[in-house]
Amino acid sequence: MHSQAITEFGKPLQHVETPTPSPKGTEVVIKVTNCGVCHSDVHIHDGYFDLGGGAKLPLAAMKLPHTLGHEIEGEVTAVGPDAKGVKVGQHYAVFPWIGCGECPACLRNEENYCSRPRNLGCSSGFGGGYASHVLVPHPKYLLDYGKTPAPLAAAYMCSGLTAFGAMKKVGKLGPEDDVLVLGCGGVGMMGVQFAKALFGKGPLAADIDEGRLDAARKAGAKKTYNTKNPDAVGQLQADTKGGPIAVVDFVGSEATFQFATSVVRRGGKVIIVGLFGGGMSMPIPMFPLRALGIQGSFVGSLPEAEEMMSMVRAGKLDPIPFETRPLERASQTLDDLRAGKIIGRVVLTP
């Protein structure tokens, strides 16, 4: 098995060879055909999450070398003796947000909230898709993607599921309600698509990059706003008669949190998805006085992934922009993503 792995945090990935896994019990071996590059990979590669004020959440407990990659699509090449319903040669997208199977969250079918996760590519000891092969513990995590392009099917396993899970938290919209997608990178572009599919109309979109805003308009955003414009807050509130009912922040920075809470209308909610980092502060009385809800959203559950993929198979979503690169360019791709040079998604092809 070949992989591009972290051998030292913050340093270029290294080529690593290990024995190809042999499946036991319900396990399935997938030969990776496509693996998306996510901003979470950047944080894991850095070795920490930024908590603001100079504080960091280090990933020192993660065992190295570690293989990144949680947006995985590939071909079944081997199955354990108890793996039912799958055959060698079949292609699937892989749900990576795997839990322990025993805790209260897992028993609620919310494995993505497990306190002892086995997330492929994100949890220590569980390698991901920046590799020629990946070991999946059970066939239930293999999802049919129909006629969807395989690279895009891979991206749905995080950027798609993250956007879908966040938009589901918005709830039902009234006739004059609007949702704002804040940040139009790969996940935000998925957010535009799922907002259209779930609410029957394009969302508003905001970003600091005109190229991304142009892509969002082409993808169906109702109207776009450059947050560097000093009139953006006032213009957005005027256009929505007081602000959007929900802001889905796909960046998760101090600046985007400030923008989100400035524009959301009274009784609305801010749903934070992105992990860019930093800290936030707001006077406590403002929460009840504005009836403001602040909620985090972390990817999605397996039932949500199955619901999402049924929409994907039915062709209810327009594809987001994506490009493929060979696995050997994984380090360069992480650098490009870190520098904000990517529109849509880059998918590695081992």
Task: Please give a structural write-up.
The chain has 350 residues and is of the alpha/beta class. The protein has helices at 39-46, 104-107, 150-168, 186-199, 210-219, 232-239, 254-263, 286-290, 302-313, 330-338; strands at 2-6, 14-17, 28-36, 48-52, 55-58, 66-67, 71-79, 91-94, 133-136, 142-143, 179-182, 204-207, 223-226, 246-249, 269-272, 293-296, 322-326, 345-349. Strands 3, 7, 8, 9, 10, 17 and 18 form a seven-stranded mixed sheet that branches. It has a six-stranded parallel sheet with strand order 13-12-11-14-15-16, sandwiched between helices. Helix 1 crosses helix 10, helix 3 packs across helix 4 (186-199) and helix 3 (150-168) packs across helix 9. The longest helix is centred in the middle third of the chain and has 19 residues, at 150-168. It is globular and about 60 Å long. The protein starts with a strand and ends with a strand. 47% of the residues are buried.
Q: Overall mean pLDDT score?
A: 96
Number of helices: 10
Which stretches of 5+ consecutive residues score pLDDT under 50?
A: none
Q: Could you tell me the number of beta strands? A: 18
Measure the end-to-end span.
Answer: 11 Å
CA-based shape: globular
* Biggest sheet layout: 7 strands, mixed
Helix share bin: 25-40%
Structural class: alpha/beta
Q: Order of helices and strands, N to C? A: EEEHEEEEEHEEHEHEHEHEHEHEHEHE
